[in-house]
């Protein structure tokens, strides 16, 4: 009896104690918000087949972040310009050369990424390379919080307003075009949201891992449902759970936070991969019924 | 040509050319179709059938020539929901998490508000369309769980829900079951009586003879065009298929 009481007290303090630190509360809130944005977008990206594009954009924002910091501009602005710029450049090189698309994507984003790393080493400032590469949700500043909230709300509003158009764009762009919907606008809208999500995502998990925030929740949800709306909800929830648990694990065991968050996401995916009722390897539903 | 006469054509494509990054896919193609006409689009793989459809839906830009729909520009036709496209199954991600109902509702998007929230009339149009293709009991089924024929009927229902006057169908009979084939054939007769204009591509020569008033034979450009009875001759077909004898293609009976 006494033992189990002690156990419960221990659990409560394990969960509650970190919350007494302001940086932990801030990290949990901000990361959950970022996770919601990335999770929402994730269901579009996985269905559109834009995983590699997400990787490209998230790496390409690096020099933008560095330049913006050096010039005293909001880092989201620099990141956005380079994110969209990289996609434009990918499109241009692909059209003007015989090199295949995935090669061009790899080529362009590594180039930008390298430029970012070189710039960091050359521009003397207080930029912490480590926090850009691996995220620093525990050390988020007030101006970063404002930017993150603003961008997150913007992306959430855009994705909500154009939700059905974007589903149609991912599913059957030719039909969208035929019924007079502006497909080019939707293409750039999704791209813009991708760049913005990459910008806020890199605070949580860093540039190197932000692509996981953009594809893993959507891929997990895709294994669990055949309904787009439910897929989006699952994606958002799994992303938020991953962020919360990832941050707790990093606090309890003194782990790198970004890596910890992504690792939880990966485990959730693995679980769905094995045990999803319909599309998992073991199709656990079959154990209970003949469905 | 006076205005009235000009307007009497549903589809008017004049000397259209399409090239993809300098590679010519279609050149100097002409087509004129009126209300209530069914036209078969026949050609080899890579002859430009899908390109022709892409041009008529506005999915690719034509580099030369002119397309008029009901005497107006393509843009206006798109806004007025005049053209519906029924894709080939291969052009669609069948695992996409949407139901039959969702897909058919997409036929109404063009005439909805920006949030695409369905009105009573949209819901009724979707119901009617799903009933006409006999899929009511499957309306909440994800498209990934449908057979090829059921999926084809879903996209046909989307075109019906759109209430377009022009239907473009890419291989409507490819990979469908007998029941679906019969249902589509019956729908075509109904569409014709409703005054819709239909352009369909097909590999099946029997279908062309069965219900196409007109036939358009293409091989990068128009090889022959006209009434099926006059144009659909073994010589023309041989020319369309790059010199291969029609015997090889569809048996000595043809």
Explained architecture:
The complex is a heterodimer of chains A (291) and B (254). Chain A has 291 residues and is mostly helical. Chain A has helices spanning 2-16, 22-48, 51-71, 75-96, 101-122, 129-134, 142-161, 163-171, 173-178, 183-205, 210-222, 228-253, 257-275, 285-288. Chain A has one domain (31-288): ABC transporter involved in vitamin B12 uptake, BtuC (Orthogonal Bundle). In chain A, helix 3 packs across helix 4. The longest helix of chain A has 27 residues, at 22-48. The radius of gyration of chain A is 20 Å and the shape is globular. Chain B has 254 residues and is an alpha/beta fold. Chain B folds into two domains: 1-82 and 164-177 and 194-245, 3-Layer(aba) Sandwich (Rossmann fold); 90-163, no CATH class. Chain B is 37% helix and 24% strand. Chain B has helices at residues 3-7, 49-57, 74-79, 100-106, 120-132, 148-162, 178-193, 205-211, 228-231, 234-240, 246-250, and strands at 9-20, 23-34, 38-42, 64-69, 83-86, 166-170, 197-201, 214-218, 222-227. In chain B, strand 8 (214-218) and strand 9 (222-227) form a beta hairpin. In chain B, helix 5 (120-132) packs across helix 6 (148-162).
Defining key terms:
heterodimer; A: mainly alpha; ABC transporter involved in vitamin B12 uptake, BtuC; 14 helices; 80% helix; B: 254 residues; alpha/beta; Rossmann fold; 3-stranded antiparallel beta sheet; 11 helices; 9 strands; disordered N terminus
Q: What's this entry about, in short?
A:
The complex is a heterodimer of chains A (291) and B (254). Chain A has 291 residues and is an all-alpha fold.
| Secondary structural class of chain A | mainly alpha
Secondary structure tally, helices of chain B = 11
Q: Return the CATH class of chain A.
A: Mainly Alpha
Are there runs of chain B of 5+ residues with pLDDT below 50, and where?
A: 1-6
Main interface by residue count: A-B, 25 and 35 residues
Beta-sheet strand percentage of chain B? 15-25%
- Whole-number tally of structural domains of chain A: 1
Output mean pLDDT of chain A: 89
Which term fits the overall shape of chain A? globular
Helices and strands of chain A, in N-to-C order?
HHHHHHHHHHHHHH
Residue stretches of chain A low in confidence (pLDDT < 50, at least 5 long) are none
Oligomer: heterodimer
Query: Count of DSSP helices of chain A?
Result: 14
Major sheet details of chain A: none
Assign an overall shape of chain B.
globular
Helix content of chain B: 25-40%
CATH architecture field of the largest domain in chain B = 3-Layer(aba) Sandwich
Radius of gyration of chain A, in Å, reads 20 Å
User: For the terminal residues of chain A, how far apart are their CA atoms?
Assistant: 44 Å
- Tell me the major beta sheet of chain B: 6 strands, mixed
Query: What is the number of strand segments of chain A?
Result: 0
């Amino acid at each position: 009896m006494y033992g189990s009481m002690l156990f419960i007290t221990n659990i409560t303090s394990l969960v509650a104690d970190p919350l007494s630190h302001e940086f932990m509360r801030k990290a949990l809130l901000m990361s959950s918000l970022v996770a919601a944005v990335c999770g929402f977008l994730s269901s579009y990206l996985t269905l559109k087949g834009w995983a590699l594009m997400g990787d490209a954009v998230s790496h390409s924002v690096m020099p933008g972040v560095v330049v913006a910091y050096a010039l005293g501009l909001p880092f989201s602005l620099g990141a956005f310009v380079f994110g969209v710029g990289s996609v434009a450049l990918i499109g241009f090189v692909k059209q003007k050369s015989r090199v295949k698309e995935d090669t061009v994507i790899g080529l362009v984003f590594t180039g930008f990424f390298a430029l970012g790393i070189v710039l960091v080493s050359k521009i003397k400032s207080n930029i912490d390379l480590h926090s850009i590469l691996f995220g620093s949700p525990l050390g988020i500043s007030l101006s970063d919080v404002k930017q993150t909230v603003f961008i997150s709300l913007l992306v959430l509003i855009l994705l909500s307003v154009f939700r059905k158009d974007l589903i149609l764009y991912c599913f059957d762009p030719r039909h969208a075009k035929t019924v007079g919907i502006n497909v080019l606008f939707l293409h750039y809208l999704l791209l813009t949201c991708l760049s913005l999500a990459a910008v806020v995502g890199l605070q949580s998990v860093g540039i190197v891992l932000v692509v996981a925030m953009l594809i893993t929740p959507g891929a997990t949800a895709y294994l669990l449902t055949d309904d787009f709306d439910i897929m989006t909800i699952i994606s958002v929830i799994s992303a938020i759970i991953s962020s919360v648990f990832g941050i707790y694990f990093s606090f309890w065991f003194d782990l790198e936070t970004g890596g910890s968050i992504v690792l939880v996401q990966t485990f959730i995916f693995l679980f769905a991969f094995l045990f999803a009722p319909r599309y998992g390897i073991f199709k656990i539903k079959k154990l209970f019924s003949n469905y | 040509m006076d205005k009235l006469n000009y307007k009497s054509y549903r589809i008017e494509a004049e000397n259209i050319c399409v090239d993809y990054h300098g590679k010519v896919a279609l050149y100097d193609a002409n087509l004129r179709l009126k209300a209530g006409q069914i036209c078969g689009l026949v050609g080899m793989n890579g002859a430009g059938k899908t390109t022709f459809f892409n041009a008529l839906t506005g999915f690719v830009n034509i580099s030369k020539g002119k397309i008029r729909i009901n005497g107006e520009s393509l843009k206006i036709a798109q806004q007025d929901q005049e053209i519906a496209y029924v894709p080939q199954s291969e052009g669609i991600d069948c695992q996409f998490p949407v139901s039959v109902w969702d897909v058919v509702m997409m036929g109404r998007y063009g005439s909805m508000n920006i949030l695409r929230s369905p009105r009573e009339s949209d819901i009724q149009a979707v119901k009617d369309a799903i009933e006409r293709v006999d899929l009511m009991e499957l309306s909440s089924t994800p498209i990934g769980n449908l057979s090829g024929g059921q999926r084809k009927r879903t996209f046909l229902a989307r075109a019906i829900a759109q209430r377009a006057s022009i239907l473009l169908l890419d291989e409507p009979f490819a990979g469908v079951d007998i029941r679906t084939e019969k249902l589509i054939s019956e729908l075509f007769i109904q569409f014709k009586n409703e005054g819709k204009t239909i352009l369909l591509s097909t590999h099946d020569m029997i279908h062309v003879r069965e219900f196409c008033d007109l036939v358009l034979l293409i091989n990068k450009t128009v090889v022959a065009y006209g009434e099926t009875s006059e144009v659909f001759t073994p010589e023309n077909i041989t020319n369309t298929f790059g010199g291969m004898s029609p015997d090889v293609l569809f048996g000595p009976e043809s």
